[in-house]
Design goal:
This protein has 545 residues and is an alpha/beta fold. Helices cover 28% and strands 17% of the residues. The radius of gyration is 23 Å and the shape is globular. The structure holds 1-O-alpha-D-glucopyranosyl-D-fructose (TEU) and calcium ion.
Length: 545
């Protein structure tokens, strides 16, 4: 019974769309996307058919990390608009049946948050223990913890002669989750947003809140799940909201811990195992290696199975931290449209809640960076100079950046072929990808065979067909290095998803015949599956007869 009930959660047949507000749509010509810009494009999201918007941070922030450094959780950044605009957005979304999930960034605040401003002044401040201050050792930092953005995770604070911890930028001091008063402040803030009518939370680097800095434990700390259970109890529990935790350190075992409904933690997590497959083992994301399709299949299949009976998966290729998938594992040249549709089919055919990152639905590509001057993101800029110092050749560094820099995903949304891609009437905060005259939403909306309409179809299929939401997953031909194929089964029905992952034609066979439900080459007649020849990047969802 519990099982049956769990299966009816609204977020299980939902599709989410991530908006990176700075780059989505600028309504007032200052070059920065804003809340009223989002309001002006709700018709577009409603047309696409998504149910949920994950809104990257719009809170007050000095923008050391584009809003992931928050100085006021209760205030909207002036460049994004006002609280009135935000309330109007929530209301207008509700009118179109779209829920907003807010980005919850509570592993750290900005160093300009009033708590930190007070905390750093004196060891006796009531806010001192909201953060993690330690004495130095032997004239240096307390230990060897490293920041995700390069360098030591400890910053010396002159006022009191101690160091504070920042796992990201030094303007992002880590909160101390051991402190109960701090946790209560977070619950109060979350409840305030819940009362405003939001649909849930996406939780930034939530697997780091249980850290034990003195033992250099950062992810999956001993109290992590206890904190999440407390959060559930004190905030969203029983309110029919949607929660998704960002967990770079997740494996299938702890994936269940987060998302087993009986444990009352989160609904699902973002795990990054597939995302890390084109990075040299044990090295950084900048250390490239080709993707091995067999590993990708294994990884997806493992998660599909592990979170099958209990728990739930999120499905994604892209977000604001990742390069564009069509450039990464598709083909952003002659097969851009086919490969973007193939990747969409592969992902949306699986069990879980799919997420689309703005621009993915029109096949936006990576940016052709030519030098460090083209970059805005602190992570990339730090890496550039660090590797320069270490003597890496310029060409290698640039290659890594072109392949992996977060800025690839952060160029303005391409709305049309006009001034600055229709993103702004002014000068955009960040440069538009030069390919906007060909790749833009207007073009996509005018072409019935566009990537946009393909995503629209995938989204509506998920609404119409419970098999796509709940069906059992089985990976086929795990040893095939070219074709990604699997079946879904539900109440006597069986679907087959076949994707040629590459440019070269590939063979595939399956017993029986199939009726195409959706295909990126427009195949619609009955197919004998015994000996199929798949065209470049061909993808088909069949109903098996
Ligand atoms: O990202 C978490 C995170 O670990 C990233 O820094 C990741 O390692 C990197 O992007 C991979 O290239 C979240 C947010 O999504 C990101 O935008 C923030 O910068 C970060 O947390 C700090 O809040
Ligand atoms: Ca603006």
């Amino acid at each position: 019974m519990a099982e049956k009930k769990a299966k009816e959660q609204w977020w299980k047949n939902s599709v989410a769309y991530q908006i990176y507000p700075r780059s989505f749509c600028d309504s007032n010509g200052d070059g920065i996307g804003d809340i009223n810009g989002i309001r002006a494009k709700l018709w577009y999201l409603a047309k696409l058919g998504v149910d949920v918007i994950w809104l990257s941070p719009v809170y007050r922030s000095p923008n050391a990390d584009n809003g992931y450094d928050i100085s006021d959780y209760y205030g909207i950044a002036p460049e994004y608009g006002t609280m009135e605009d935000m309330k109007a957005l929530i209301q207008e979304c509700e009118n179109c049946g779209i829920k907003i999930i807010m980005d919850l960034v509570v592993n750290h605040t900005s160093d300009e948050h009033p708590w930190f401003v007070e905390a750093k002044k004196s060891k006796d401040s009531p806010y001192r223990d909201y953060y993690i201050f330690r004495e130095g050792k032997a004239g240096g930092p307390p230990n060897g913890l490293k920041s995700c953005f390069g360098g030591s995770a400890w910053e010396y604070s002159e006022e009191t002669g101690e160091y504070y911890l920042h796992l990201f930028h030094k303007k992002q001091p880590d909160l101390n989750w051991e402190n109960e008063a701090m946790r209560k402040e977070i619950w109060r803030m979350m409840n305030c947003w819940i009362d405003m009518g939001i649909g849930g939370f996406r939780m930034d680097v939530i697997d780091k809140i249980g850290k034990v800095p003195d033992q250099e434990i950062v992810e999956n700390g001993p109290k992590l799940h206890a904190y999440l259970q407390e959060m559930h109890r004190e905030t969203f529990g029983g309110k029919n909201l949607m929660t998704v935790g960002e967990c770079w350190g997740a494996d299938t075992e702890n994936g269940i811990l987060y998302s087993d409904p009986e444990r009352k933690e989160l609904d699902m997590i973002f795990q990054f195992e597939h995302i890390e497959l084109d990075q040299a083992p044990g090295k950084q994301k900048w250390d490239l290696q080709p993707l091995n399709l067999k590993c990708l299949k294994q990884s997806f299949a493992k998660w599909q199975e592990a979170l099958g009976e209990k728990g739930w998966n999120s499905l994604f290729w892209d977000n604001h931290d990742l390069p564009r998938i069509v450039s990464r594992w598709g083909n952003d040249k002659e097969y851009r449209v086919e490969s973007a549709k193939m990747l969409a089919t592969l992902l949306h055919g699986m069990r879980g809640t799919p997420y689309i990152y703005q621009g993915e639905e029109i096949g936006m590509t990576n940016y052709p960076f030519t030098g460090v001057g083209d970059l805005m993101d602190v992570e990339s800029i730090n890496m550039y100079w660090e590797r320069k110092r270490m003597g890496y050749p310029e060409g290698d560094i640039l290659k890594s950046l072109r392949t992996k820099a977060r800025d690839n995903a952060r160029t303005p949304m391409q709305w049309d072929g006009g001034h600055e891609a229709g993103f702004t009437e002014g000068t955009p905060w960040y440069t538009v990808n030069p390919n906007y005259t060909e790749i833009n939403a207007k073009q996509s909306l005018e072409d019935p065979d566009s990537i946009f309409y393909y995503y629209q179809r995938l989204i509506s299929l998920r609404k119409e067909q419970p098999i796509l939401v709940y069906g059992d997953f089985e990976l086929l031909c795990p040893e095939d290095g070219k074709v990604f194929a699997y079946t879904r089964e539900w109440e006597g029905e069986k679907w087959l998803v076949v994707c040629n992952f590459y440019k070269e034609p590939a063979g595939f066979s399956y017993p029986g015949e199939g009726r195409p439900i959706l295909s990126n080459y427009g195949q619609d007649s009955l197919v004998q599956l015994g000996k199929m020849e798949l065209r470049p990047y061909e993808a088909v969802i069949f109903e098996i007869r």
